Amino acid sequence: MPPELTPTPTPTVAPDIAPQGSSLYDQLMADVLSILAILASTGLAFLSFYLKQKLSSIEEFVHNVSHKGQLPEEETERVNQILAQLAVIYEADRVTLGVLHNGVIGSQGAHYNKVEITAGYSAPGVIKLPELGKDVEASTIMDDFGTMWKEGKELFLDKSSAHHSCALYMTRRDIFHLWNKVLFVGNLDVGILSMHWCAPLEKLPVPPETSRGERLAKELIGELTSIIYSAKERKRILG
After folding, report:
1. How many CB atoms sit inside 10 A of residue 175's CB?
2. Which residues 6+ apart lie within 8 Å of 108 measured at CB?
3. If we measure between CA atoms, which residue out of 226, 13, 188, 193 comes closest to residue 110?
4. Is residue 217 part of a domain?
5. Are residues 104 and 38 located together in one domain of the fold?
6. DSSP character string of 79-95
7. Chain segment 33-51, per-residue pLDDT in tens
8. pLDDT: is 38 or 223 the higher one?
9. 77 with 55, same domain?
């Protein structure tokens, strides 16, 4: 009797799951890449917004720095009133205010690069100063008038006796007599008050010492100085 044959087992074939696993992996990677792309896009949007804001701040800062001579709007009307009052007291045809700015402050005072002619009064029929509302190089003023400044703070000038460059400056602005006065707090120069007479005079109509007119003029000039200095301090503190 032949031996009983044991049937050979049929090998079990494992189900083919590789394609399914690969598909899940690819899908997962696609989702991850999509999320990363969204995050990157969002990040770029925020970065772009931040940079725009930063650029706007820088532009505003540069604008403020380049206009340091400007006085607060709420003070402008009062400054104009003071200049008009000084014109009456001194019988001047034109009174202007220059604010010194863009400089370096040291132990000996300040050296400024710019003077902004920030306000001015002109009597009826008298032309406004061409520089009104503009920046002027501080060195130009000092070079034009040079050592004629009395102790560096005051200058009286008569066109008939001025040297050529000063006489030319005055002629172009219809000035016969000029008085420039530096406004300062301690050793800090803050501005220049300029009075012009547009007709020849034998004697300038300056009020006598100790007179009511002189006292009022000093008070007004002191107020002008205080307004400029307060504006500079406010900008220094607030930026």
Report:
1. 24
2. 187
3. 188
4. yes
5. no
6. HHHHHHHHHHHHT-SEE
7. 777 777 777 766 665 666 5
8. 223
9. no
- pTM (predicted TM-score): 0.65
**Neighbouring C-alpha atoms within 13 Å toward the C-beta of 88:** 8
The count of domains in the chain is 2
Indicate whether 8 belongs to any domain: no
Residue 57 backbone dihedrals phi, psi, to 5 degrees: -65, -40
Q: For the chain, percent helix, then strand, then coil, each to nearest 5?
A: 50, 25, 30
Residue-wise pLDDT tens digits, 174-221: 999 999 898 988 877 888 899 999 999 999 999 999 999 999 999 999
Closest CA to 133 of 81, 67, 195, 199: 67
Within 108-211, strands assigned E span 109-122, 135-137, 154-158, 177-185, 188-197
Range of the domain at 212: 73-238
Tally DSSP H helices, then E strands, for the chain: 5, 6
For residue 152, give the CATH number of its domain. Answer: 3.30.450.40
137 vs 113: CA distance, rounded Å: 6
Look at residues 132, 138, 72 and name the one whose alpha carbon lies nearest to residue 109. Answer: 138
Q: Is residue 37 part of a domain?
A: yes
Q: For 148, which DSSP code?
A: G
Q: What is the chain's mean pLDDT, rounded?
A: 76
**Does residue 82 form part of some domain?**
yes
